[in-house]
Each structure stands twice: as structure tokens, then as C-alpha cells.
Automatic annotation (TrEMBL):
Residues 154-186 form a coiled coil. Keywords: Coiled coil, Endosome, Protein transport, Transport. One of its GO terms (biological process) is endocytic recycling. It comes from the Eukaryota. Residues 51-70 have a biased composition (Low complexity). Belongs to the VPS35L family. It comes from Anser brachyrhynchus. GO terms for cellular component: endosome. Residues 40-70, 95-116 are annotated as: Disordered. This is VPS35 endosomal protein-sorting factor-like. It is found in: Endosome.
């Protein structure tokens, strides 16, 4: 049987593809929705003959076919219903109300349910007393690589009167308290007489006293007395800069923005921060800057939130754990006054304290307690006012889960206390 040769048939793939395509239906973009019930157009195409004859194509449009997923929802889906119910128009008034609510939530909002520091002040002074002699050593150490003008002004801070140190030695507790009150009044008098450098010198002198733990059982009361002066200084500086922002005898509103502060007030505010940054010793530099923390509002909207973490880290450079925990308490106090919504720095201060709590086992603390004849149980009670305040700040309007976390941390702290009490050498 003779074989017939096969020859490839020439084909036009483009035309064949066009004939096999479904009929396209124009879709209005505005009506398109991915979850909208689908309308399907069915095209029926006859098979082409093998002989290559051109076959006719007939198409018929069927009625709208129900999508199986949409049929379960009776043609409607939850997202479409939600979108239809939502108001697509966002008015300017709505945006303003949202912004006002956010500003209100972000602003200082310490209410009457928060126990103020003033209510604890008297209790601390009455509890932590001493019969030993106290001293107030006058002396400052300032200066750094600053401009000549600033250096000249700061050199005045070291120009202390000769013989003043002897007059402030061997003071009784009452004499000490009287002297601190005199320094507080001297600060106000120097400020009212426009002696700003003298006022800064007094604040630096007082801040340095917080590094002295020679009469350690009196330290909590000393902290209360010294921070009273720091509070006075911070208030005076803030009110001074605020008064420079008055325009036509109209002061700024409580929720003013840095953009509404004039250049003169900003320059004065920066000048204060530059002077404080020139203080060489860590403790007075920390306390004086923390005292005017609120003044950051004049410079930047994020100034306080940026300054708090830096000051928190600065406390890590304080070697004495008792001095450090009271520095943390003061930072939490001024932080709650100006930005109570910034909880992160409060939490960080507490956990930093837990990490450094083991320092009480060190030779420095133990030798200090031996010299002063202070037993470890008494020493540990000195931490109570500071820790109590820090925890109060953290727990204020905090979620329950946060409070539970800190309760667990406090349980760990109590365990360390019990461990110390059970040691044979005590």
C-alpha cells in the first residue's frame, strides 16, 4: 500500500486566537468592585473542521450567572455592607474634633486621683531624721569647651566667698533645714534682682549636696529639701521664658506650639540649656537640667520625649545605688508633671533600678554602712520613698497587664530583700 506523504497545513494563529476568545464586555471602572456579584457572558464556539474550512461562530449571551460565593450571602457581602454604611465624607469639623481629642489625650492629664508629691513630703521629713551633725559644703565645678563669653559667665560660679565652708559645718538637723530654706529664699532674691548667674550658682551648690551620703539615714529628707529648691528654680526659668513670649500683653495658651514662640524666647531658653550642659559634674548637671525639663516645650514639640530617655541613661553613670534611685524618682516626678503620657521612660527607670540593685552587695556600699554603723535593714528602708513614688507613677492609669508585670518585678525585689535579711553577717 502506497504511503501518502503528510504536508503541514498553513495556519493563521492570530485569527484562530481571535475566534476562540470570549466576547469582551466593557466594564465601567466606577462600578467595579471585587466582591460585586459577577455577570458572566458565555460564548459558544463550534469546533473547526479538520479540512480547514472556515467555520462560523455563534455566540449567545446568557443571563447573569450567580457566583457560588455570593449566593451563600444572598448576593451581598459584609465588606460591601460595611462600606455602604460608612460615611464617605470626612468633613473638616470631624478632622478638627479628632485632632483636639488626640491633643487632649497626649497632653498633661494628671488628675485628682494621682497622689501629689506634696502629700508625701511631710511624711518623709518626719520619718527620716538624724541626731548626727550635718554639713553644707559650698563649692561648684563648672566649665567645658564653650565660647569665651559663656566661660567668663560660668567662672563667676566658682567665685565663692572664703570662709563660707566653715560656717556651714557641724549643723544640727534643724539648722540644716533652716539653712536650706535660706538658700531657697536667696535663690528667689537673686532672681528678682536679675542676678541669674548667682541663682544658677545656688542651684548647683544645692544639687551637689545630693551626692553626699555621709549621714545616710538623713538622705531621703535631704532629697526632699534640695528638690524644693530645684522646683523653685525650674518654675522661675519657665515663667521667665514664658513672659518673653507675650505678644501685645497676651500670653501663650496652655497648649502652645513651638512655632508660636518668638526667636528671643527660644534663644534665651537655649542659653539656659547651654549653661547647664557646661556643668562638669554629673549629678548637678542632671538635676538642674531635669528641673527645667518643661522648658523644652519652647524649642521642639518632641523635645521632652527626646530628653527623657537621655536623662534616664545619664543616671546610669551614678555609682551610688541610693543616690541613683532618688535621681530616678526626681526624673519620674518632673516627667509626670510635664508629660504623664510618656510611660516608657518611667518603666525604663524602674528596670534600670532592678538591674543595679545588686550594687548594695558591693564593697563600696558595705564599707560605707560599716563606717556609719548602719545595719542593712535600716539601709534598705531608705529606698522606700523613691521606689514607692516610681511605682505610683508607673501604675497611674496603666493597663492591668502592665501592673501585673510590675507586681512580678516587685516580688523579685522582695525576694532580694529577704535574701539580704537572712545572711549570717547581718
Amino acid at each position: 500500500m502506497a504511503a501518502f506523504p503528510w504536508h503541514a497545513r498553513s495556519r493563521n494563529y492570530v485569527s484562530e486566537s481571535d475566534m476562540c476568545k470570549l466576547e469582551s464586555v466593557p466594564v465601567d471602572f466606577g462600578d467595579y468592585h471585587p466582591l460585586k456579584p459577577i455577570t458572566v457572558t458565555e460564548s459558544k464556539t463550534k469546533k473547526m473542521s479538520r479540512k480547514g474550512s472556515t467555520s462560523s461562530t455563534s455566540s449567545s449571551s446568557s443571563s447573569s450567572m450567580m457566583d457560588p460565593l455570593s449566593s451563600v450571602l444572598d448576593g451581598t457581602d459584609p465588606l460591601s455592607l460595611f462600606a455602604a454604611a460608612a460615611d464617605p465624607v470626612i468633613t473638616t469639623a470631624t478632622m478638627d474634633n479628632t485632632r483636639k481629642k488626640r491633643d487632649k489625650d497626649d497632653g498633661p492629664a494628671v488628675g485628682s486621683d494621682f497622689e501629689p508629691w506634696s502629700s508625701k513630703r511631710g511624711e518623709i521629713l518626719a520619718r527620716y531624721t538624724t541626731t548626727e551633725k550635718l554639713s553644707i559644703v559650698s563649692g561648684t565645678s563648672t566649665g567645658s569647651a564653650v565660647s569665651e563669653k559663656v566661660r567668663t559667665r560660668l567662672e563667676e560660679l566658682d567665685d565663692l566667698e572664703e570662709g563660707s565652708q566653715k560656717e556651714l559645718l557641724n549643723l544640727t538637723q534643724q539648722d540644716y533645714m533652716n539653712r536650706i530654706e535660706e538658700l531657697n529664699q536667696s535663690l528667689k532674691d537673686a532672681w528678682s534682682s536679675d542676678q541669674k548667674v548667682k541663682a544658677l550658682k545656688i542651684v548647683i551648690q544645692c544639687s551637689k549636696l545630693l551626692s553626699d551620703t555621709t549621714v545616710i539615714q538623713f538622705y531621703p529628707s535631704k532629697f526632699v529639701l534640695i528638690t524644693d529648691i530645684l522646683d523653685t528654680f525650674g518654675k522661675l526659668v519657665y515663667e521667665r521664658i514664658l513672659s518673653m513670649c507675650m505678644d501685645n500683653r497676651v500670653s501663650l495658651s496652655d497648649n502652645f506650639s513651638p512655632e508660636s514662640v518668638n526667636d528671643t524666647a527660644k534663644e534665651t531658653c537655649l542659653n539656659w540649656f547651654f549653661k547647664i550642659a557646661s556643668i562638669r559634674e554629673l549629678i548637678p548637671r542632671f538635676y538642674v537640667e531635669a528641673a527645667i525639663l518643661k522648658c523644652n516645650k519652647f524649642l521642639s514639640k518632641m523635645g521632652i520625649s527626646e530628653c527623657l530617655p537621655r536623662l534616664t541613661s545619664m543616671i546610669r553613670g551614678i555609682g551610688d545605688p541610693l543616690v541613683a534611685v532618688y535621681a530616678r524618682a526626681y526624673l519620674c516626678r518632673v516627667g509626670m508633671e510635664v508629660a504623664p503620657q510618656l510611660k516608657e521612660s518611667l518603666n525604663k527607670n524602674f528596670f534600670d533600678f532592678l538591674l543595679t540593685f545588686k550594687q548594695i552587695h558591693g564593697d563600696t556600699v558595705q564599707n560605707q554602712l560599716i563606717v556609719q554603723c548602719v545595719e542593712i535593714p535600716l539601709y534598705l528602708t531608705l529606698y522606700s520613698p523613691a521606689i514607692d513614688w516610681i511605682l505610683q507613677c508607673i501604675a497611674y492609669r496603666a493597663p492591668e497587664v502592665i501592673c501585673n508585670d510590675f507586681c512580678s518585678s516587685c516580688s523579685l525585689l522582695n525576694h532580694n530583700y529577704e535574701h539580704l535579711f537572712s545572711r549570717d553577717e547581718f
